[in-house]
TrEMBL record:
Cellular component aspect of the GO annotation: plasma membrane
Lineage: Bacteria, Bacillati, Actinomycetota, Actinomycetes, Streptosporangiales
Membrane topology field: Multi-pass membrane protein
Localization per record: Cell membrane
Predominant cellular place of this UniProt entry's protein: membrane
Organism: Nonomuraea longispora
Protein name: MFS transporter
Length: 417
């Protein structure tokens, strides 16, 4: 993995290398915790809907508070906010470990920790995004985002694998302790970065109505609204595979916890492939977004028809790759084609859409899985994603040309490359 390769060009920067190393450690710990929490809830309740509700608890604060976090990120220095947020996440992971080690009999304390974690993410997440954009120059930001997807996927694979191996020995509580420790690696990496090599973003002045200004910008930018609407649909009924994979493993595939772990690992491998696809492209374009979203939706609908674990797992690869490519493209275009002083609020808007999609899609897919079966949930979700992509393509075609380029700052190659 040579930094001189165009696919890995962001690694030429010292601060990004530290950020990338810390990221994979933190993501590994996070996914160890995700597996532990999901399986703990499923064990306590036997309900996929309950797993989906935990996603609601994490997502709701971002929907309600995210734009305030974005306004703070545009005004405050990012570095101290990032450190405080990491300390808060570590404390919450430690709390979850205490709950698990003392013997959880109810999901309510777990939901409480998820809700508190959502608040920390809502207020600290936009600053984290702005900080990540400052460790590379703007020209390398899309590549850094794509590499971040690869590292996140690698961390997911490692986290799921380690969780499966350690769970019989440490229990869920041990997984949560490891996750708590991982946040201190991020703090150490931030402290070791070279201040002279940051690429500062323009900041916003302290003023009343900053949240309103951010909302107004999003609502008055037609191409961004269309892209976010497509992302919302794909995120709600097309990206909540934590729920549907668990339901398929426990239900039609009769694969149990081992099957769920295997599917999660295969899905993570697919996200690595998607990250390489995004990182290898010189430009992440609107056309790439639409084509990938359409193909991924079709694959999801077909996955509901798969009769065996191995055939279902095989389709998880392209679905996961497509999901990462879509996410990376949306994030890159939304950030780079918006004003720098608005960056935190744009990141917050992306987080709100993603969180809202999770809040709606998690319980919805869980409910569909419980009532109509997980196969029907996958098929309905896939068809909805295909329809949303076609509608978005039609809307963007209507907005194409000079009007959308002036409104969004898009160059022709972003629409057609």
């Amino acid at each position: 993995m040579s930094p001189s390769s165009p696919t890995f060009r962001a690694l030429r920067h010292h601060n990004y290398r530290l950020w990338a190393g810390a990221d994979i450690v933190s993501v590994t710990g996070t996914w160890m915790q995700v597996l532990g929490v999901n399986w703990l809830i499923l064990t306590l309740t036997g309900s996929a809907t309950s797993v989906g509700l935990s996603l609601v608890m994490q997502a709701l604060p971002t929907v309600l508070l995210g734009m305030w976090g974005g306004a703070l990120a545009d005004r405050l220095p990012s570095r101290p906010v990032v450190i405080v947020a990491q300390l808060a996440h570590a404390a919450l992971a430690a709390t979850l470990a205490v709950i698990a080690l003392t013997g959880a009999e109810s999901v309510l304390p777990i939901y409480g920790v998820a809700l508190a974690g959502g608040v920390v993410t809502a207020l600290g997440g936009p600053a984290l995004g702005r900080f990540g954009a400052q460790v590379v120059p703007p020209a390398d930001l899309p590549n850094a985002m794509a590499l971040g997807s690869i590292l996140s996927s690698a961390g997911r694979i490692l986290g799921m694998s380690l969780a499966g191996a350690l769970l019989p020995f440490t229990g869920n509580g041990g997984l949560f302790v490891i996750n708590a420790a991982s946040f201190f690696v991020v703090i150490a990496a931030v402290a070791a970065m070279r201040r002279a090599e940051f690429h500062p973003l323009a900041t916003a002045e302290r003023q009343a109505g900053a949240v309103r200004d951010g909302l107004r910008y999003v609502l008055r930018t037609p191409w961004l609204l269309v892209v976010l609407a497509l992302w919302f649909v794909s995120g709600s009924v097309g990206r909540n595979f934590q729920v549907t994979m668990a339901a398929m493993s426990a239900g039609p595939l009769d694969a149990g916890a081992g099957g769920y772990g295997l599917l999660s690992t295969v899905f993570a491998v697919g996200t690595v492939l998607g990250g390489f696809v995004a990182a290898s492209r010189p430009h992440l374009t609107i056309r790439l977004l639409l084509v990938t979203a359409f193909v991924t939706g079709v694959a999801q609908a077909v996955s509901g028809l798969m009769p065996e674990l191995w055939t279902f797992a095989a389709l998880m690869l392209p679905i996961a790759a497509g999901a990462v490519t879509v996410d990376t493209t949306v994030s890159a275009r939304a950030q780079l084609d918006s004003p720098e002083p608005m960056r935190g609020r744009i990141i917050a808007a992306l987080s709100i859409v993603s969180a809202g999609a999770g809040a709606l899609g998690g319980p919805l897919l869980g409910r569909l899985s419980d009532t109509m079966g997980p196969r029907a949930a996958l098929e309905i979700g896939g068809v909805a994603c295909v329809a949303a992509t076609l509608l978005a393509a039609a809307a963007l075609a209507r907005l194409s040309g000079r009007t959308i380029r002036q409104a969004a700052g898009l160059r022709p190659r972003l629409e057609n490359a």
